[in-house]
Amino acid sequence: MSTKLNLPPFAHKVKELNGKPHIYDLIRRKYIMLTPEEWVRQHFVHLLIGHYHYPKSLFAVETGLFYNKLAKRSDIMVLNTDGQPHLLVECKSPDVKITQAAFAQIGRYNFTLRPAYLAITNGLAHYCFIIKDGQIVYLDDFPRFERN
């Protein structure tokens, strides 16, 4: 992937599998097909670990959840040390504009998971917020890891 993101670079491992590029995911501990969205997800995971000091053990990547009996997948879920949802991140490809639809999508996930913080990124633009009294309150930065 040569797409330059608005995220810090990291030492990534890419290899060809079945003629397609795959990137090593240190959370899932395996190579994952390298799509534009996966490129964003891997950068964001490394940002949260390297700059915000979240332990790898608190991450869940591409985990399932149910909303109105429909199976959905969250891109990045970071738990707190009590195992409760702390930060839910929705990743989009860099060529996908972050629109109201992305906020609606993460809002549906929020309804089920109830994390303390929510974030949306396409690798170029990033939004972090909380839901307070039914309203979106934008934050200036992502929350740093703190032990409970």
From TrEMBL:
Residues 36-143 form the Type I restriction enzyme R protein N-terminal domain. This is Type I restriction enzyme R protein N-terminal domain-containing protein. It comes from Persicitalea jodogahamensis. The lineage of its organism: Bacteria, Pseudomonadati, Bacteroidota, Cytophagia, Cytophagales.
